[in-house]
Amino acid sequence: MITKEYLKLRFKNGEAYIRRNRIDQIKRVDGIIFDCDGVLIDVRESYNRAISKSAAYILKKMTGFPFPEDLFSDEIIHMFRVTGGFNDDWDTVYGIVMFTLSEMPSEIRECLAAFIEDAGFKNPPISRLRSIEKQWEKVGGNTLDVEFLSKLVRDLKEFTKLLDSTGRKSVDEKLLRIHGQDADFRRFYILLKRFLNSREVGKSVIATVFEELFCGALLFKEAYRINPAINTRFGLIENERLIVKPECLNSLISMLGRRNLGIASGSRRMPAEYILGELIEKFNPKSLVFAEDVEAAERLLKKPLKKPNPYSLLKAAEGFGEFRSIIYIGDSMEDAIMASRAREKMRRIIFAGVYRYTIFEEEMLRIFLKYGCDIILPTVNDLPSVLEMLGREKD
Hints:
The structure is a single chain. By secondary structure, the chain is an alpha/beta fold. It is built from 19 helices and 10 strands. It folds into 2 domains: 2-43 and 241-390, Rossmann fold; 47-238, no CATH class. It has helices spanning 2-5, 23-27, 47-63, 74-81, 89-102, 106-119, 125-139, 146-160, 168-179, 183-196, 205-215, 217-224, 246-256, 269-276, 291-301, 311-318, 333-345, 361-371, 383-390, and strands at residues 6-11, 14-19, 31-34, 41-42, 241-242, 261-264, 288-289, 326-330, 349-354, 375-377. The strands form 2 sheets. An 8-stranded mixed sheet has the order 1-2-10-9-8-3-6-7. It has a two-stranded antiparallel sheet with strand order 4-5. Helix 3 runs parallel beside helix 5 (89-102), helix 3 crosses helix 11 and helix 6 crosses helix 10 (183-196). The chain is elongated, with a radius of gyration of 22 Å.
């Protein structure tokens, strides 16, 4: 029973749960590491919209059919995330685009393959997309009826149930398992992956489109040193708002007796700092790990290190030097899995899941309880009260 395993508390924004068998370790906490999106920053009106807009934009260019921007709903995006493999929003766009194009009628796939080969792979990603768009215009575009789109959405939801914490890898494995008996499909899939390219803004179709729509013209140019090609206005990042309050961070610093606050996030540094503003100064600079840091380590070590790999969490913890126990605060299953994997290497890690600023907060609360998270809170701002209530041990 949950009531036996957890101490239950009530806060203004909802209920909190603390595992009784972890209370002694929680009392010894002297370092706290935060995920960024959904924990420090409310991203409900930014990242999900950037995912759906990016997927619709890319699919329109690649099929000649105007996909509705709201076709890929918050529910679908949530279903990707609860697999534990899609903390990176580029990966969610990848999953949506690859599935949708794989489900296109064979004659559309054949045309698209020819258009991709004609567009080539060397030009900038937006130029390549526009080349394909022009080819579709020459042949009159495509018409996909409402029934096709409805079935696509239903099938995409079912497809997410096959995915796992390996993220993109599971997308490729499952689609090739479903369609891979067809040699023409395998050739199409390989061609499509090469065309989309995977990771780098300015080379990758997905990364470039997403970051332009998310960042907006000025921040995109500042962050990537590339002139925007599709968005000359504000980005969806302007919809973001701070969750964490300055007094929360001040209370934690006061309790810990030093600035043992860090960030281990799959988001990019400049957009995060753009929203956090002066609050970034309250964190230990040696314990800030963002997507760029993980990607640099991946290039150096030649292996995947993104969440739920514990690399970013362990790297942020290193910045504290000596410590007794650390709380990592996240808002997703990927964060919970990462903390569990980090604990295999460093037993002194406690996971706190926050649910108030997720899209489906009641479901996220149930998922965290089912997973057996150490601490479950409505928001990060409730953490100082929990530590004070439990009576944190002094150094």
